[in-house]
Amino acid sequence: MRRTRIAGAVLLAGAVTGLAAGPAQAQEYRYWSFWDGTGSSWAYATEGPATVRPADGAVAGFRFAVSADSATAGKPRAAAGFDAICHGTPAKDGRKRIGIVIDFGTAADAPGGERPPKARTECAQVGEDASAGEALAAVARPLRYDSNALLCAIAGYPESGCADQVKGAKEPASSASASADAAADGDAAAGEGDGGPSAGLVGGVAAVVVLGAAAVWQARRRRG
């Protein structure tokens, strides 16, 4: 009887793992994602632009696109070279220079009836304690935020909407989960980098640990 229960727990754990790790068609969102740039490469930011305070010489990138999470988010298509962006902006005491790359995305990712502006690069010269969000505001107004302080528009694009779900995907998700991946503000993706584990996979692993521990506990209890 004990072996049967243990085997059942193990089989159930395996089933949970299979469901969590199996391919899922995640809900996609249309949003601004935030990136850290170095030379010609980009990395999905692990902090939101409202909290990260880049040093002089840093580059921050923003990309408007449709994706489900950080692993599938489109990177800014311009290079992330600070020298090329800020070569015409001399350094000043008490100020820092932050390269800003703004990629408005493709026509395919644009909301209905809108056309994405051309990509831009700007050199923001801001106070030494300024955040990446403040650097963006210095060069790309107007910015638009929602009631949860999620960045919805840069330089007025898009005209409406904020991390809207894109029709056609099968798995429902809340706009709050989209903001965790996409927000160009203080609530931006805090714990998920490029190719990081999905919440479903983490949940599956946790279930395996719980079920396995329960099986061992039952076995020891019956021995006693």
From TrEMBL:
Residue ranges of the region described as Disordered: 173-196
Range of residues in the leader sequence: 1-26
InterPro entries, per the entry: GPS-CTERM (IPR047704), SCO2322-like (IPR047703)
Keyword list, A-Z: Membrane, Signal, Transmembrane, Transmembrane helix
Ranges annotated as spanning the membrane: 199-217
Biased composition (Low complexity): 173-191
Protein name according to UniProt: SCO2322 family protein
Organism: Streptomyces decoyicus
Lineage of producing organism: Bacteria, Bacillati, Actinomycetota, Actinomycetes, Kitasatosporales
